[in-house]
Amino acid sequence: MKIRSIERAGRKAGRALVLPSSIQHPDKLRRAGRRLAGQILLYFLLIGISVVFLYPILYMVVNSFKTVGDLVNPGIEWIPTTLYIGNYRRALVALDYWHSLAYTVIFTSAATLFQTISCALAGYALARHRFPMKKLWMVLIVIAFLIPSHVTLIPRYLQFFKYGLVNTPWAVLLPAALGQGVNSTIFILVFHQFFSSYPRSFDEAAQLDGANRFRVFFRVALPICSPAIIVSLLFSFVWFWNETYTAGQLMGEAQSLLPIKLSSFMELYNNAYASASSGVSQINESQNMAATLLVIAPLLLIYLVLQKRFIEGIESSGLTGE
């Protein structure tokens, strides 16, 4: 009412009255204030969640650079007196890091590639072709996803032992190449969803141009489903890298995989420094943290490099639950 009376008085005076924008639009000012308060609250929540997730990484990084004196000193928690890199040197020697890293990268990449190709072929066949008992195969895939992997560990071990595949890389590579396991069922369903999403006219047009089924798959279907390929490659690589239980049972400790070596790091460290002085041969928490960071460093590097493609692939694949 006050604003209207002021405007009337201005018109009667024969001149235009210009009011400040905050007086003209008080509702906009209140909405802007509420929007700013919501953004501040959102940032506080994101920072809190980030601290929860980053705390273990920060804890490992800080403790990996501590000396024995800093480790036992209750007054030193987050800032060491010096950046001591001796823990990393000893962890590199105990893990035989560079040789084990090369073997682990080659093995994990091969398993990832085999699994992605087999799951893509299976997902394409289920989505684009008709064959007998197709629905039954889909039900079996879902059932295989629901069965825990530990239930099939003993029968699988006995089967591989019968064929002489135990303590060899083929005990893990062969199931990956044939699309077996819980992880493979997830990727088959993801590829099935993608291959079912684009029109069949694309395949028919390629076939009219003389392309066979394999050429249609590689030249038409795979380029369209590139987000599913990215998701499969990244998730499969991480899962094979961190797979210590099944790989340890089937491949044994003779295989130079970094995660398996990390599980027995104390024994490896004692063997490497058995003849050293007592101050070096005694393993401590800082050396354990350094070894753990060396093992997960390749995964962190891959995530930092492919973070954007990784998030886009997850959003496009429907794994977010939307």
Layout: helices, strands, pairs:
Layout: H1 2-12, H2 21-24, H3 26-64, H4 68-72, H5 86-95, H6 97-128, H7 134-146, H8 153-162, H9 170-177, H10 182-195, H11 201-208, H12 213-224, H13 226-242, H14 245-251, H15 258-263, H16 265-272, H17 278-281, H18 285-305, H19 307-317
Helix pairs in contact: 3-18, 5-16, 5-18, 6-9, 6-10, 6-13, 7-10, 10-13, 11-12, 13-19
Mean pLDDT: 76
Instruction: Work out the radius of gyration.
Output: 30 Å
Helix content class: over 70%
Q: Please summarize the sheet with the most strands.
A: none
Q: Could you give the distance between the termini? A: 48 Å
Strand content: under 5%
Please count the helical segments: 19
Brief rundown of the structure:
With 322 residues, the chain is an all-alpha fold. Helices cover 75% and strands 0% of the residues.
